[in-house]
């Protein structure tokens, strides 16, 4: 997305929810002496509140998000790292992808004078043009910046990984959202699961490797838990779990695979990440940094009741445009 996501912290009608009864049943009454008067305070707590607070407390920012404007809560208009866009073409056709719903032209988006990292790329599959990716890495590293590559992993191979490492690529992010080939095909419309998993393992041996996974409630919950174990076994460094973002243009397609009524629930996201972490003790399993820093400011009662606004317009790049210099 163009902007770092801001969670919708409006807790409309929270006190009308059925869960409130459970909170009140477990509430603790405490007395405070204020100016000679005894005031009674109801503390709304429950085991799940404590658990959610503990989960958030232990989550760490993924390496890709370090340096992102979204980590600064004082920034009222945060944007992602600058990106190098090579193509919108892709060999996958993912049901949730926003890239196919808009039009962009190749180039550099963002101010390279005021950043620490550049991502290749936000749209399309860059490894359809590996030589252009190499030039992009060379250019970013010539500026002394961190270079992150985002890919679906299909076209990675040993030679490319070696070349990328020699050029100074800092990390690679590979998309995988299922633990079974048939589910992967349902999401991407291609049969590439085994190849992607193999290339993730290959990448993990040579580069800092992050797997990006989209969480679709009531569809791939359990498979992401199973995937976490696979990724732990092959030595992946980090897993970044993203909430599903729904656009009007892909809503109907998404509704064919799952109900969207639970999309955006922070409680469900955190409990899923916690289960994944249990299956992947050697991996930093986390969520995107711009969301995490906001959740760290909230108590368990809030975490248990809020929902991210995951129904969005198609993201439009508003960062300044520069043509590719090569």
Description:
Its cofactor is [4Fe-4S] cluster. InterPro entries: Aldolase_TIM, Elp3/MiaA/NifB-like_rSAM, rSAM, rSAM_sf. It comes from Methanotorris igneus (strain DSM 5666 / JCM 11834 / Kol 5). It holds the Pfam family Radical_SAM. Residues 80-268 form the Elp3/MiaA/NifB-like radical SAM core domain. With 326 residues, the chain is of the alpha/beta class. The chain has two domains: 12-45, no CATH class; 46-322, TIM Barrel. The chain has eleven helices and eleven strands. It has helices at residues 19-25, 47-58, 130-142, 158-167, 181-188, 193-204, 221-233, 251-255, 266-279, 289-295, 300-303; strands at 28-34, 37-43, 83-85, 107-109, 117-120, 146-151, 171-175, 208-215, 238-243, 284-287, 321-322. A six-stranded parallel β-sheet has the order 5-6-7-8-9-10. Strands 3-4-11 form a three-stranded antiparallel β-sheet, with no helix packed on it. Strand 8 (208-215), helix 7 and strand 9 form a beta-alpha-beta unit. The longest helix has 14 residues, at 266-279. The model is unreliable at 8-30 (pLDDT under 50).
The total tally of domains equals 2
CATH H-level superfamily of the largest domain? Aldolase class I
Distance between the termini: 26 Å
Strand order of the largest sheet: 5-6-7-8-9-10
**CATH architecture label name of the largest domain:** Alpha-Beta Barrel
Question: Tell me, what's the shape?
Answer: globular
Classify the beta-strand content into a percent band.
Answer: 15-25%
* Oligomerization: single chain
CATH topology of the largest domain: TIM Barrel
């Amino acid at each position: 997305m163009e902007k770092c996501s801001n969670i919708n912290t409006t807790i409309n009608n929270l006190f009308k929810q059925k869960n409130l009864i459970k909170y009140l049943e477990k509430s603790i009454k405490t007395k405070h002496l204020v100016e000679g008067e005894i005031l009674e305070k109801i503390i709304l707590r429950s085991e799940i509140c404590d658990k959610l607070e503990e989960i958030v407390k232990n989550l760490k920012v993924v390496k890709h998000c370090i340096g992102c404007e979204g980590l600064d809560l004082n920034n009222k208009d945060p944007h992602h790292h600058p990106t190098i866009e090579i193509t919108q073409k892709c060999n996958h056709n993912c049901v949730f992808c926003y890239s196919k719903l808009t039009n962009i032209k190749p180039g550099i988006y963002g101010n390279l004078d005021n950043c620490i990292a550049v991502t290749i790329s936000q749209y399309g599959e860059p490894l359809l043009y590996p030589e252009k990716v190499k030039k992009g890495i060379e250019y970013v590293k010539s500026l002394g910046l961190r270079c992150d590559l985002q890919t679906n992993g299909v076209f990675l191979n040993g030679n490319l990984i070696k070349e990328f490492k020699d050029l100074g690529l800092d990390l690679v992010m590979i998309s995988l959202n299922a633990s079974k080939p048939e589910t992967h095909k349902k999401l991407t419309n291609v049969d590439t699961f085994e190849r992607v998993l193999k290339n993730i393992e290959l990448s993990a041996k040579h580069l800092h490797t992050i797997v990006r996974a989209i969480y679709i409630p009531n569809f791939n919950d359990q498979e992401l838990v199973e995937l976490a174990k696979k990724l732990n076994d092959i030595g992946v460094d980090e897993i970044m779990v993203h909430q599903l973002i729904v656009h009007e243009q892909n809503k109907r397609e998404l509704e064919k695979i799952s109900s969207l009524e639970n999309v955006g629930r922070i409680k469900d996201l955190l409990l899923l990440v916690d289960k994944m972490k249990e299956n992947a003790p050697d991996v930093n399993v986390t969520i995107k940094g711009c969301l995490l820093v906001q959740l760290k400011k909230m108590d368990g009662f809030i975490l248990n009741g809020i929902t991210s606004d995951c129904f969005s317009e198609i993201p439009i790049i508003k960062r300044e445009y520069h043509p590719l210099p090569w």
